[in-house]
Specification:
alpha/beta, Molybdenum Cofactor Biosythetic Enzyme, Chain A, Molybdopterin biosynthesis moea protein, domain 2, Molybdopterin biosynthesis moeA protein, domain 3, 6-stranded mixed sheet, 5-stranded mixed beta barrel, elongated
Length: about 400
């Protein structure tokens, strides 16, 4: 049985991007760049006015004693190109973003100018380059604007558009199927016979993956019949990049999922992990297709998704970052983990000026759904840990989108 870190390393070492595709800027948000975007030209491509005012020669108004009026010979608005040259003793009216006319080396704000019948009067010295945005101030031609492996944000899309790009090459998002197994399951909305329970796991997984922008389908639960399980999994593997199941991966007589996957030729990469909850995790792969067998208890399925499936989803989309990211939180109550497995404690988070504080969200039994609903994070408690109040500890915070904190390291 692998440790938590060892299991993650197995997934990371075997994960490969699923291929590239080109998408429009409108479809690029949240994807991972598969090809770098480089600036085709300087930005801005020419000097332009930083505000509304007058383009002048600074030497005309440099003297502290005598500043004669300057004759206005034209104007340039944003989107226009100047057809006048600023000669000595003249000025051109300019507006924010307009190209600076030839001959001018400064822009005087309009509030510092007095209009007279003889021209404009400027009542203060004007320095060289004042209120002019120089060429390439944002970036020069050839700059790498979006590197390969970059998680694309709204600002990245704006940057690509600034460079004239209307589409981006990104890594393909995996096609995912979710299904639960177990003869005891019943679809929500149907009558519930004695001894049976409603399927909640597949709905949790589907909703979480959709929130991540992953195209995911959900099929009805699988009964514990060998032929049905094998036929359904074979069909699923043919249609999807990854199949995520819950239940049927332990060692009981009715735990058929792992056995069925192996009978279909999948190589077992992980069979049991030293984590709590979620020990019976199984992961297999064949011909670029993957299967994650999550345990059937709700908390175990949730932990398996966040701790293992989540980082794998980004690795196969080409994201190179160190996932899953662990937020530092401050314990507001003591935490103990006397066992030899990494314990994922479902916790509530409270934000205070000095940081995020964490406390247990409720009973931690792997069968309890409500505690998951009340939690905002998973405290990652090391084996044999005894942490006191005030200890800074690591936590997975699913709804905070950990990639946001990694962007600085991927530029």
């Amino acid at each position: 049985m692998r440790t938590y870190e060892a299991a993650l390393e197995v997934l990371r070492s075997r994960a490969r991007p699923l291929g590239k595709e080109v998408v429009s800027l409108a479809q690029a948000l949240g994807r991972v760049a598969a090809e770098a975007v480089r600036a085709p030209s300087d930005q801005p491509p020419w000097a332009n006015a930083a505000m509304d005012g007058y383009a002048v020669r600074s030497s005309d108004v440099a003297s502290p004693d005598e500043r004669p009026p300057l004759r206005v010979v034209g104007q340039v608005a944003a989107g226009q190109w100047p057809d006048q040259t600023v000669e000595p003793g003249t000025a051109v009216r300019v507006f924010t973003g307009a190209p600076v006319p030839p001959g001018a080396d400064a822009v005087v704000p309009q509030e510092d100018v007095v209009e007279t019948p003889a021209g404009i009067q400027i009542g203060r010295p004007v320095s060289l380059g004042e209120n002019i945005r120089p060429p390439a101030e944002d970036f020069p031609a050839g700059t790498c604007l979006i590197p390969v492996g970059r998680y694309i944000t709204p600002a990245d899309i704006a940057l690509a558009a600034t460079a004239g790009q209307d589409r981006l090459w990104v890594y393909r998002v995996p096609r995912v199927l979710v299904l639960a197994s177990g003869q005891e399951l019943v679809e929500p909305g149907q009558p519930l016979d004695r001894g049976r329970i409603y399927d909640s796991n597949s709905y949790l997984l589907q909703a979480r993956l959709r929130r991540l922008g992953i195209p995911v389908e959900r099929w009805p639960w699988l009964p514990d019949r060998w032929e049905d399980v094998c036929q359904t999994l074979a069909r699923a593997l043919d249609q999807f990049d990854v199949v995520i199941t819950t239940g049927g991966v332990s060692v009981g007589a009715y735990d058929l999922i792992r056995k069925a996957w192996e009978s279909l030729g999948l190589e077992t990469l992980i069979a049991g992990v030293a984590v709590k909850p979620g020990k019976p995790l199984w992961v297999g792969t064949a011909d670029g297709r993957w299967a994650f067998g999550l345990p059937g208890n709700p908390a175990s399925a949730y932990v398996g998704l966040e701790a293992f499936v989540y980082p794998w989803l980004w690795w196969v989309q080409g994201f190179p970052g160190a996932l899953p990211y662990r937020f530092p939180v401050i314990l507001s109550q003591p935490v103990q983990n006397p066992g030899g497995r990494t314990f994922f404690l479902r916790c509530r988070l409270h934000v205070r000026p000095e940081g995020w504080y964490a406390e247990s969200a409720g009973p931690q039994g792997s069968h309890i759904v409500r505690t998951t609903a009340l939690s905002q994070g998973l405290l990652v408690v090391e084996p044999n840990a005894r942490w006191e109040v005030g200890t800074v500890a690591p936590a997975l915070v699913p709804e905070a989108h950990p990639l946001d904190l990694l962007l600085a390291g991927t530029v």
